[in-house]
Each structure stands twice: as structure tokens, then as C-alpha cells.
Give the backbone structure.
Amino acid sequence: MTEGRRSLAERLARRQARFLPAVDRREEAESAPAREERSLPPPGEEDPGGGGGSIGIGEESSADETKAARLRRARALLRNTERGWKDRRPAQPLPAGSLPARHPTTRTSESARHAASTRLPPAGRHQEPFSREEHDFPLAARYGGAAGGATLEGLAETGEPATARLQIHREQPGVDFARTLFLDTETSGLAGGTGTFAFLVGVGRVVGEQFRITQLLLQDPGGERAMLEQLAALAADGPDLVTYNGKGFDLPLLDTRFALNGLPNPLAGARHLDLLHPARRLFFGRHESARLGVLERELLGVEREDDIPGDQIPGIFFASLRNGPHPAMESVLAHNRYDLRTLAALALRAAEHTAAGWNSDDPAYLQGVGHHFFRRGEPEAAIPLLSQALEAGLTGPSRERCLLDLGEHRKRSGDWEGALRLWDQVRPGDTREKLEALVWFAKWEEHRRKDPAAALAHVEDALELLPRVGMQFGTETRFRLELEERARRLRGKRRKLSRR
Amino acid sequence: MDSDPNAGRSPKKLPPGETSLTAPERRSAIRSLVAELGGGALFSGITALRHFSAQPAEYRDFPEHIAAPLREAYREKGVEQLYSHQREVLDRVEDGEDVAVVTPTASGKTLAYNAPVLNRILREPDARALYLFPTKALSRDQRKELLELKDLLGEDIRAEVYDGDTPADARRSLRARAHIVITNPDMLHAGILPHHTKWAKLFENLRLIVIDEMHTYRGVFGSHLANLLRRLRRITRYYGAEPQFLLSSATIANPGELAERLTERRVSLVTRSGAPRPERFFVFYNPPVVNAELGIRRSALEEARRIARGFLKGNLQTIVFARSRSHTEILVKYLKRDLETRPDRSGLIRGYRGGYLPKKRREIEDGIKRGSVLGVVSTNALELGIDIGGLDVAVIAGYPGTIASTWQQAGRAGRRGGTAAAVLVAGSAPIDQFVIQHPDYFFEGSPERGLIDPDNLSILLEHLKCAAFELPFQKGETFGKEDLEGLLEVLEEEEILYRSGERWFWTADSYPANSVSLRSISSDNFVVHDRESGRIIGEVDFVSAHSTLHEKAIYLVESETWFVERLDHQGRRAEVRKIESDYYTDAVTHTRVSVLDRFAASSESAAPAAHGEVHVLQQVVGFKKIRFFTGEIVGSGELDLPAVEMHTTAFWLEAPIEVLHAIPFGPEDRRDGVQGIRSALRAVAATFLMCEPGDLGAAIGSRADEDLAADDPPEGAGGLLGTPQIFIYDDYPGGIGFSEPLYESRAALLRETLGLIERCPCQAGCPSCVGPVGEVGRNGKRAAVAILRGLRNQQSAGNEVEPAEELPAGEAAARGIAAAGKGSAPAADPAAP
């Protein structure tokens, strides 16, 4: 895999030179001896420059006029963003120029309090294709407000096997936080594809007693290659990676960028912990969502000062690209640093929850950890936590999820009756948990009691419930296909039975 | 794609269950039914009955350059020899040429491209091929065919479909491992090219690009495809590949030109078919006039039903093509009632159209192939090469709009070595009436030209954006024959691209492929949910959703009636409940057009014409309930639905006040006259442009009302306020570029419109000219003629020089229409049932 990628990158690098189209190559060949004659269009080609030399004067002016009219029309068409069916999504509004001016106070107060030092001043950025700045934060320093906040104490000492227990699949190796790049990018958009690039790559790592954040900020899209080479240098010693949704977003995006620039991807094949997925399980039910910002606030108690909404970030980059330094770019950089520190703090907290012997007064947290282990296929760790959680008066969706897991465990050990008693306690409602309970009942009727009609009734209930649960489209489709297939099979069985 | 022709030499098809006929029985049944039709005892409106005798095949041996195992695999499939055209394609591809094969339906075009592709992969195991089909259904069909060959070959050749239905987990391995990637233009546009790094393996090794059903890429869709191919070649160049093109097409007038404009390469043409042709009868039938005064003919739908019923009762497998989804559904219902007379006969008649779920479509296709489906009613969805084998009879309910489509649809009937019949039943539209009364126009005429304009600015700009997203543009690069740098600078000024040195980078927070749809319809489909089972029973495209899924509408699926309880516009879904309904619904749509920009306006003093950009607002404001079978209106309702708006281009004509006042008619008649001109003008314009009338919208507005137009002329004060304007607009978001050629030939357009109305022998208007008298009133037709004469006089007074013979190719047809009138048809036959 890595091998293949490397060779692809090399092949691409070689091809970059060839990517000039035919016309261009010919021009190059001809232009060497006689540069002045370049204004003459090549035979049979329309003049690409606009100032044709060989055309008669009258025709020239009319051709120019047509060309000018065409360009005018092009401009009008582009401005008319509402063209076509108007029902399309509105264009992303660019952030207004009324954003708060730069935040020197944030920077200085932070520096003063945490002795952060800026290695490279932001000055002179625009002469370079990208800028690099570094900020050191003592691991012991508390950040994120007087009320709560978090520290990164213990980061250097956390590694395998503690972090391996965080992976959602047992076969994935853990990472060593002491030699990890905590990575987060800010991109030109969320759409993905080869036209979306990272204009800011932030990495945090442990250096002595400090958490050192290095930020690479693109000043010009043409500088991407140089920036990526710098990132490769940072990853030269083959570090581990920790990200938040990096598997789905940051890493494939960077992979595409490396490939497009004809560079090998130094991150390919690294040991990687994508914290989003364990976080979803560990903190399910207890917090409104697994978004980094939500967990930062609710779980870690971190309050950001002057944070910038994520959807404004690409616009700030584009604005600074065209109009020179944008005051809000400082906020973007600060936002990225918050994200990185919180990523590390959250990784520590998650590792704490999954450590052997951990316990909590909060049944929802117990259930989260129990669920995580159960799904990893470690019932011996999971079941005591889940049972404890249920006894401690678990409520809400966590409770239903807990019942499902405990029931599944009973069923696996052959105790169908015990399993059914648990699933039966799942409360009715438009929930995914209820849906899954119905599927269990259908399985029970079909495979144990051999009653396809009763099983079918459960499947039909589930199908009826499905659209009300409000799952993501893909998940809902998967459920639907599975249920419809089951219903089809059950109808067949029922027919067969009735014939006998 | 066609089913493999050679397979037919040893017929595998099962005859339809209890209704099986032997081949000779089938032949004599078709002959006698055609004779009965042609004899005129039951149907008085036969205008042509042509007989085409069977033609034997022209065979050639497999060439040596085709690998022995592949020849062996085809032999096992029953293909011992090639048809001459297949051999020709194979040889030319071997010589490295780009080839287009243009032969009739079921002539084995599939083999002509599969064999070279498989041969190449056998020779070069890393080689890749990309297949583009216009629809998903065709992709699935093709994969089945390739899998069969792969099994016969016993080689690990992977052919995979990549489209919206491909499961996410299958995509990754497909990208790296599929030798043949089968997809559609929309997916290439929005799913593959913008992620080309993930497809590096495909693009580096891409040797052949197969484009089937090339004739579908005409007009705006074709212009999009040409740009898409520019983008594709830009990407393959980047990965160092220079693939060959292999195109296949149904018969059109200019296949070579279309192929070269699409690919922008020299394409070698193979047009002489060596495939055998079955004996075929082709009948033209014009439903009789039932009310001469009102110019009303018996409905084509009703007549198609009668004719199809005759064939079906003779146990002949019959396909009926209807012009719209609702016509399809209505015909299914009628024929089910006629044929499915006993419970054990249920399922003999099926419907088929785009909105059905894929699984249902597969089931119907299989039923047709196996013979368990005796009759199928379809939209043009089955016109393309979905493999359903050959049927006995094709009944075409309403002229499909083009000669090429008509032949395609007729070609669906025809078993190898058998006898086939096709019946065209004319509708009341002017073009139907013209064709049915001038059979030579069809039988002797050449099929339509496939015209595209890849440098249409609005289409080009969209694709430039997509291309820049895919890879930064380099200085000196070309894209078609465009002066690229000027456009790139404009894109830069508009802050979509950013120039850095010699390159232009995409710098916008968006995914440009998402904001351009290659087809006229928005890709945003509405799903139809059965409220009771919670299941999705169908999908409806964005534009049709308003008229078919509004609340209280009856949504039809294979003649089952579903009552729409709720339309969730935001959520793009409709909730329906199954009911037994004896009526269907027909939505009433209002249209308003306002001018945004004039590109050009004529200088003639008094009959100003112009073209430019317009804003079209359409709103479904109500609906009518129409009883099945009788067509009687049994109720109506009002609706409050969000308007659908689009920007497009339009041609428009003004009728100045002085012209209107100079004619001896009152205000109401004048209004009727203007409305009549609108109907006739649209029909003539469609013929000029060689498009379907449905591609054009028509509306009336008035200039005093500040460029506001409604399809209902404003009421009060005699009906007309200010100077009336008649708009003919491109019924495609963004426009297709129809308005400029209309504007350029405005004089001829006026002349032909006047001719059409003047020469139409109806008394006071009919659907073939200004519209039925019920719409335009007693004096509408005469007023229309008077107004048009006035406009023509004004024009000549303005010294307008008519563009002589530089009209679009459709002018001949337009003249034809003008000459045709329903009155030349035989009078209603009182004996007809």
C-alpha cells in the first residue's frame, strides 16, 4: 500500500513536467529562438493571447469586440449565481469584513499565563509561500477558563497498551502519545475532492515539558508543495498520529494533496488513533453530541475566548489571499491551537476512562465505557460496567443501549429467555434502540420459535418505525435493505408453512 | 446496447406461458392482423402501410488479432462468425483508430466494443476501460453481459458498475481493481473526475473509452458531454494516458460530425450493417376526426389501446410506447382491464418508466425476456438498448418527436428470423399530424442531426470551473478551442480562481460539479413514501414533483392509484396512501416570464423581436380530477405550492398596439388571437430547432406591465394591457441556446407560423394550429391571421431582409407543417367503434 502510493507519487512527479498540453509544448519549442514572434498565433490555432498580428484590421477589431463581448457575458453569467433552478443551495456567504479585529489580548494574556513563546513572528509571512509558527504550552498548564479547563499532564507517559484500548477494533495498535503528532487541518472547504486543500496544518507534539504546536499556514496555493515538504520533515521520524475524524477527512485529504504535488505521503501507514469514533461510544448519552467543541465544553470544561465559527474559516483564508492579511486570521490560528490542545486533552481523558480499574459515579459514563468494550468484543471488561450502570439508575438512550448490549451478551451465552427479558424493557419510542430490539425479537421468533408470522409482525413494526427514527440517510438505507430482505424471507417461509 | 445478435441464432427465449405460439403461427398472426388493420374495415385512418422484407446477414470470420480464448468464448456463446460491421470495427480499433459504429437496434453493437476491450485486457492485464452509458439501467445490463463473457473466458476480468447505487464499501476496491468501470456521465462528472487521485490506477492505464447510445448526447446534454470529455482527457493526459474512443449510436443524420464534435478527435465511421433484418411491417395510423368543427380527433391513447389490444389478444408480445409518464400509467390501466380478465392472467401487462425502483424494473425486463409479460407500456425509457430481447409488435402512441427515436422504438419489435410489426398512432400535435400525413417525410427522409454546441458560454463556464477544481489550469493550456486565458482571468476577477505564477487555482468553498446538472432535470429527486408500509414506492424528479405529487394528487404506479396526503417540499418527500380511485389528476400550472437582459433586439420599427435572458416562474396553482376511461372532469382543487423559478434564455415577439388596433376585431378576440399565435409559434419553432415542443416553454406577457408575463393573459380592460409579448423560452435551467437561432430566423418563423394557420382547413382553430376552439374562442384563429399579417406588413415596411436559405435544417419540416392540416384527413367514420 505504502509502496504503491510512493511509486504513484513518483510517477506523478515525473508527469507534472509532461502535463503541459500540446500547444504549450510547441510554443515553448518555438519561443526559444524568437520570443518576440510569440504574438503570432500558431497556424490553424486561434490566437491565445488576444492581440492577433496576422488578421486584417477590420476583422481584428470585430474579433476583439466579439471576444470582449463574450468575456463580458461570462462575467455576467458568473455573477448571476441564481441561474438555473433557484431551489439550489444558496452560495456560502463570505464572512463580513466586520469581524473583530485581531486579538492581541488573547495572544498576550495566553502567553503571559502559560509562557507560550512564538518562535517565528507572523511578520514577513507574505514573502514566503507559507509561514510557520510555533507555540509552546507547558504540559502542566491549565487552559480554558478559570471555572474548569484542562491540562495535558501525563501526556508523555501515556502509550500502549492504554491507548490500544481506545481503538474501536481490537486488532488496531495503540499509539504512543510521547511520539505522536496530534494533527488538525483547516481547509478551503468541506467538500473534499481534488479542489479542496488544507491551507493550515497544525500539529502538536510533546517536546520536553512542553506541548509544542507547529502551524504551517499557506500564503499562496502555489506554495502547497513547499508546505507539504515541511510537514513531511515534521513527520520524518515516523511518528504516530492522533486526529479527530482524521480517518474520514484530514488524512485522505492530505493524501490527495501529497499525490497531486508528486510527493510521497509520509503519514501513510502511521499508527493512527482517530478519537472521534471511540469518543462517540464513550460519551454517548451523556453529552449532546460527539463534536469536539461540545465535548471540550461539557466534558473538559474548557471555555474558548473569541472563537471563530468554523464555517467562516475558508472565507477568511480566501479574503487574506486576495486582499492581504486578514485580521481574523489570528483567530483562525488560535482556533486551530485550541483544537489541538483539546484533542490531546480529550485523548488523555478517554484513556483515563478506559484504564483498568477506572470507575465513575455517573452511570452514563459507565455505560459508555462498557459499550465501548462490548463492541470491541471484550465482554469480560464490559459486562460488569454495564451491569453497574443499569443498577445505578441509568436513564435515557444510554439505558436502552445498555439493555440491548446486556441482552446480546445473554443471548450469546445461550440464555435467550434472559436476553428477551432485557430487550423487553427497551421503552417504546421512535428510537434506534427500539428498532434494534424489534429485530432481536424477530430473530428470536424466526430462528428459535420457528414462527415466521410472528417474526414478520416484528419486522413490519420495525419498518414502520424506521422512517421516524431520523437516522442518517445511509444508515437508514442499510437498515431498510436489511429489514426488507428479512421480511421477504419470512414471507417465503410463511407461505411454505401454510402450504404444509 | 443490444442483446447479442448471435445468441438469437439458437433462440433461448421461452414463449409466453400458456400463450405460446410457434414461429410460423406468430408470423401468420402478425400478417393477418396487419392486413386487417390495413384493410381499413376496423380502422379508417391508415395513411401508410410499408413492408420491409427480411435481409440476410453478412458474415465475416473473427480476425487473427482477437485472442484465441476470446474467440472461443464467443463461440461458446453461439457466435461463430461476426457480422461484417463488427469485423470492421475490430480491425479499425486494432489499427489504433477512434471508431464510431452506427447501425440499427439489435445489430450487435455490444460485441463490437466488448470484443476489442476484452482483447486488450487479455493482451495487457493492467489495461483499463471506461464505459459511459446514459442511464443506470443500461450499465447494469452491460455488466451482466460482460460477466457472462468473463466466465466463459475463465479469466479474472472485473467489470463493475460505479454509480449512485454502488455501495460505499465496494467503491474502494472497485477503483483499484476493476478493469472495466461502467458508469454514466453524471457520475463521471460529479463522482469520479473531482476525485481523480483515487482513480489513479484507472486513469494511468486507461486504454479505451466506450460511449454507447451516442445519439442521446444531443443538444444541451451533448454539449455537456463534450465538455466532460474535455475534462476527462485533461485528467488522462495528466496521468500520461491517451485512450482510444469507441462510440456506438443509433442512426442519425450526422453521426461522424457528432462523434467528432463530442470527442474533438478524428473518428472513423462504420455505418454499413451486416446484421440480418427481420421482415417488418410499418403502419401509419391517424385517428379519425370526430368533431370536424372543433377539429377534434379520437385520442391517440384510446386508439393505441384498441390497436394494442388486437395484437395482445392474438397472443403477440407487444410493447406500447407512450409520450409521457402519465400516459404510460393510464394505458397500463386500460390494457390491464382489457387483458387481465382472469386472476391467472394478472401480470401479463406491465408498465415501465424511469421512476420505478431499480428492482422492479429488473423484474419487468426479465418478464419481457422470458415471455411472462405479454404486453408492456413504456415511456421512451425502453427505447434505449436495455436488453429485453425482440418482441413481436411495437405500438407507438404519439410521434416520439424525431425520426431516429421512431425507428428505435419500432426496432424493439423484431425477433430474429421472424416477422415484426410497428404501428405509429398520431396524436393531435401539429408535428404528429404532419408526419402521419406525409409518410415519405419519415420513410424516405433522413433522420435528425445531432447538434451540439460545446462552446456555449454558460455550459463551458460551468465545466471550466469543474476542470479548475480537478487540476489547476496552467498558462497556455487549452480547453476546446477557447481563448482560455481571458476566461480564466474573468474567473479570477470573480474570485473563483486565484492566479499564482503560471497557474490558476480553485479557491472557493464549494464543489462546482454539484451546481451543474448535465440534464435538464435537477438531480434532487423526491421520494414517494407509502405511509402505511413506510416504504419508498417511487421517485420523481424535482420539476415533475410539483405537478405529480402535490397534495390530493393521484400518483400512479403501474395503474395502482395512490393518494398524496402530504408533500414535504423541504424534505423532498411525498407521503401517499393507496386508494381505489376512479379518477386521475392533472395539475394546472401558471407561468410568468420577465426579461432580465436583452442580448439583441430587432430594429424593425413595428414588429420588434428580441432574444435574451429571462426569469421564468412556474407555479402549480390547482388541479383537475379526470375520470378514467371517460376523460370527464369530475372535480378540481386549488393549491398553494412554492413556485419553481429558473433563469433561461428566450426569444420574444411583440404585437404593437397599432397593429392590434388596425385589425377588425375587439379586444377579447385580439387576446385570443395572440394566444393562438403563441401555440402555433411554439409548434413551428420546435420544428425549426428540431427539438420537441416540450423543450420549449411559451408564455404571453405585456411590456407595459414592466416585462411581466403570464400564460394567462391579464384580465380586465378587454384582456390586453400594453403591448403583448409572446415568449418562446428554453425550458431548461440556464438555457440551451435556442433563442438566438430563433431570433436570427424570425422572419421565416413569422412567415411559417402564418402559413401554418392560414393553410389549416379547420374552421376556427384546432390543436394543429392555434389550438382548439375551446381555448381560443370563435374568432381566435381569424384574429391570429390578421395580427400575423399585420406584423409581416410592418416588417416589410421596416425593410427587413429575410435571411434567405440559411435556416436551420428543420425548415423543410416547418413548411411541411404549414401545408398539413387535419382537414385533409378523411372524415370521421361513423362506423368506427
Chain B touches chain A through 69 residues (CB under 8 Å). The radius of gyration of chain B is 27 Å.
